[in-house]
Design goal:
The chain is α+β, with helices and mostly antiparallel strands and about 900 residues long. The longest helix is centred in the middle third of the chain and has 30 residues, at about 345-370.
Amino acid sequence: MVKQVYIVPHTHWDREWFFSAAKAKVYLLKDLKDVINLLENNEDYKCFLLDGQASLIVDYLHWRPQDMDRVKKLVQTNKLNIGPWYTQTDQYLVSGESIVNNLLIGMQKSERLGGYLNVAYVPDSFGQESSMPQIYQDLGITDAVLYRGFSTDNVKKSEFIWQGEDGSKINVYRMAAGYFVGGVIDETKLKEIMEREPFKIIPEQATTNNLLLPNGSDMAPIRFDLPSFVDKLNKSNSKYQFKISTIMDYINAVKADDPNLVVLSGEQDCGRDMRVHKSIYSSRADIKKYNTKLQYYLSNIMEPLLVMGDYFDLEYPRAAVQDIWKKMFENAAHDSMGNCVSDAVNEDIKLRYKQVADIATGLVDITLRQIATKISNNDNPITLTVFNTLPFVRNDVVNKTLYSPSRNFKLQANDGSEISYEVNSIKDVTELILGSTIQLDPGREIYYPKKVYEINIDLYLTNIPAFGYRQCYLLPLEDSILGLNKPKKDSVIENDFYKIKANQDGSLDILDKLNNYNYRNQAIIEENGDDGDSYNYSPPEDDLVIYSTEQENRIRTYSNKLRSKIIICFDFKVPSNLQKRAKKITDVSMPVKLEVSLNQSSKIINFKIDIDNRWAKSHRLCVNFDSQIMTKVSIADIQFGSIKRPLVKERELAEWSKSPDNWQERPISINTMQSFVALSQKTRCMGVVSNGVREYECVGIDNRVIRLTIFRTYGMLGKRDLLYRPGRASGDETVPTPAAQLNKKLSFDFALILEQTEYDQTDLANIVKEFETPLLVYEYAEFLNGRLTFPFNPVSRSYEQEFSLFKTDGNLTISTIEKSQQGAGYIVRLYNPLFHVVTDRMIFAKHPKLVQLVNLKGNKIKDLTIKANIVEIPQIEHAKFVTIYFEV
């Protein structure tokens, strides 16, 4: 029987790589103009696939708006396939909200031009994350054309069903020989095309007589002579019939034959048949940290706070929010997110993050200001409004810099209760502040003190309402000189949960008071060489591993009623480069300061590490926590839930040892998480939380040590013949990346949480959510208008001093609270981080008008019953999310 080969003309367009996004747009302008002309003028050129990302056509039309009608006609007639993505996103390093919004905005942009390809087309992202089937399904996508991460050891055929962590399923049509295979056809051997490598695996792995042959490559222009070339193929072959087709032509043909498809479960990150760059998670750690913090900020603080502002009749800045997300999507593209790009491109990525940070913090600041200044202040001139963007009541110690007319003052909540605080530093800034005060009406009398002090304090805030605010006050007292904290002589800090002792070698002994279990020799810093490139960490053939316990150190301890900390300064001596490392020569200094702090009544142990990395090259820094827990799996959070991973890929490593030439990458167990990784047994659980690089590996005796990557450095975009990735170079081995050596001062923070039961009985995910989502304290006084806050016209203070919109029981974990893109109400997305079924409730402060269960597009699934302002959320299974729409 003749096999039908569906040739899909396309281009895989990396928006930036070793060239910049600006240059790529120039090339894109020329190439897309050729595509449009050919599709319009050559009837035999039936279609073209624009890489599944709508941003390309958006960029093109931004510079060539005169082609809008032409593009719309081609999209509407299915000749030009665009979307559903906005950009071809990475899947492991971006948040769930980033992925959802990427698809939603990509679909919206495509629909305005005539429609989107309703297929999850992902040709080149480095592996397939196991939340994706659920996301695709909830957006109405049931078919996916994918490439990287799947192993023929696990699924022999190129068509199968992929089941995600939550159980959702999607049909997968894997590009058996890659997205570029149609661009490497030797025209002198057309008769043999499907009978030899790399083409022969396509019919071998197909479940039907319908075969997919993508024709295109990285940034490749459209092939002008493709129709005539297809004629040559057909004349040269009797077993195969070739035709130019859309992706949907191929998918529909396979479905019509109704093959019996096997089910493959879980995340797909195998580097056997194609590279997935498992340790790309730590490339350019300085930029990775930027992404981590901004993702938290957008979903945990900015979006919820803008909802609060909308509730109080502030105009919702929809266009600004979409602009923020579009910039994040540009950075989420797989090469940009992996930072496997040139130094010049990394500078562009940093600039976009800076722009996002500036816009997002500006929106937050103006929203805080507009709400805070309308809250009743009981005629107190200096207010501190505390905002909580999480849906449960919170108590926390917050570090804040305040401006006070006196060095001595009282902090008071709206109910008259006194707020405990401790002063860390005081500075007289009278001239700076009062010299820049702006009054729009200079004749109007305002509170204008004689002195102003900048005072950094720790303050203990209690009973802050769920998704709401509480008004507090700074009440000046008679000025006096305050004594500040001085270092303690001992090396011990403690709170209600932990007692931490710094040992002479710089390691920590951490006593879990609730469990009476002492975790000895913790937080050991490990430095070693990195012979890898921008894609992969790889150890040198002759390495030298250096530990903090071998370095000279100095220990200081500080403590007050609210916060205590240990500061350990290490005098690391390390090799300056790989050549010196091979000779075991430690010829440069790398000063490291590790700060460990405890807040009153908090289960979070906070760490901050500062490194002076100006002199060492091609190395890696990690921190090790020995869980002393015997288990076979690690537990890490993913976009909308959690996943169990084997500590070591034993079967894969055995296969690698027997035949490494059959593998593209060594099957290492370096993994990533969204926020935390945990090791757990019945009576203990250790969770490590990263606020920077989110990469870990379980090492040591019985693999019980969680090794968190702090950073790694390298000097080339691509290199060949790495220990962990043999053979050809990934990317380009001619492009140096000196900035990736990170020869500068670096700072990262992370945390440790210890629990007294197994993971599935803990509240670890919600504790981590609090770590990522600080309470916001907004200070306002009219004399501060000017240098510190932009001036506003006076407003009336009519809002209540305490407010809460709604709360939950806190059984599920919040993903975000945002303004609905369709209705007048709001969206709440929650997910189950545990491995058993969970129920929860939404309790509203006043009776809501409407509460509905909706899908990711905001379309109603069903109405939810409201009883006495309470809505019961349907039972949520492991790693499932639920999206709820409500109007109040």
